[in-house]
Amino acid sequence: MAAGEGCRNYVVVPTSGGRYDVHLKKRQRVAVYWEEEVSEVRRCTWFYKGDKDNKYVPYSETFSEELEAAYMVAVTLDEWKKKLESPSREIIILHNPKVRRGLVVVLLASTDVPSVLLRLSALPFCCSF
């Protein structure tokens, strides 16, 4: 094993003023000073907010990557209104963010009510939820 190779495979980042450690490879957040259930951390760019939710929730890493790929194709080719199916079987239709002040507006077919997906490109990780 080369020098420093083990360090690259085990990255821990202190969060919340050092009260929690995030183990990046394991995608886990662990309390440092007390016993608490380990929580999941997702690397994510795409978030959604349900009808009854008061905060944005990250999609799974896999679906977030799928959404990002579809979004990049839409941006590159300027071809919008692409339909995708979410893991919860809702139909997501991407619209041009220039029209909606940078937010990606979608129509969820199950409700026929416009909803907003949030795309955060500056934050590579979302804390636990």
Automatic annotation (TrEMBL):
Record organism: Athene cunicularia (Burrowing owl)
Pfam family, one: WWE_3
Protein name: SEC23-DDH2 WWE domain-containing protein
Residues annotated as domain SEC23-DDH2 WWE: 48-99
InterPro entries named among the record's database cross-references: PA-PLA1, WWE_SEC23-DDH2
PANTHER family assigned: PA-PL1 PHOSPHOLIPASE FAMILY, PHOSPHOLIPASE DDHD2
Source species, domain of life: Eukaryota
GO molecular function (one): triacylglycerol lipase activity
GO CC list: COPII-coated ER to Golgi transport vesicle
